[in-house]
Design goal:
Elements: H1 15-28, H2 36-49, H3 56-67, H4 72-97
């Protein structure tokens, strides 16, 4: 495994976020970019359940670390997977926030 835990950029990450990241990183080790989608979704969902939100900078950092040691083709595959996850999360957030006209009337 790449020694990502000592990456200086991670030193300022919230410990709860870092713990979730460690769990996800151990699950993606040796996996292809497309296999990372469910793991990334799980990371985000677990964070949301705990009331934790990753900033865009933190997500970028996590992706940089996950791409370490991967071929350019795998890195591109990871980027495509991330776009898919982001689209899925946006759609999920729209549903979670409710659509106008749905829900109890005041």
């Amino acid at each position: 495994m790449i020694d990502w835990i000592n990456d200086p950029a991670l030193k300022d990450m919230d410990p709860a976020k870092l713990e979730l990241f460690k769990m996800a990183a151990s699950q993606v080790e040796g996996k292809s970019g497309s296999a990372m989608a469910p793991i990334m979704m799980s990371l985000i969902m677990n964070a949301n359940k705990r009331g934790i939100q990753f900033t865009p900078d933190e997500m970028s950092l996590i992706l940089q670390v996950l791409k370490q040691g991967k071929s350019p083709a795998e890195q591109q595959n990871i980027d495509k997977t991330v776009q898919l996850v982001q689209t899925m999360m946006r759609n999920q957030m729209k549903g979670a926030n409710g659509n106008p006209g749905k829900g109890p009337k005041k």
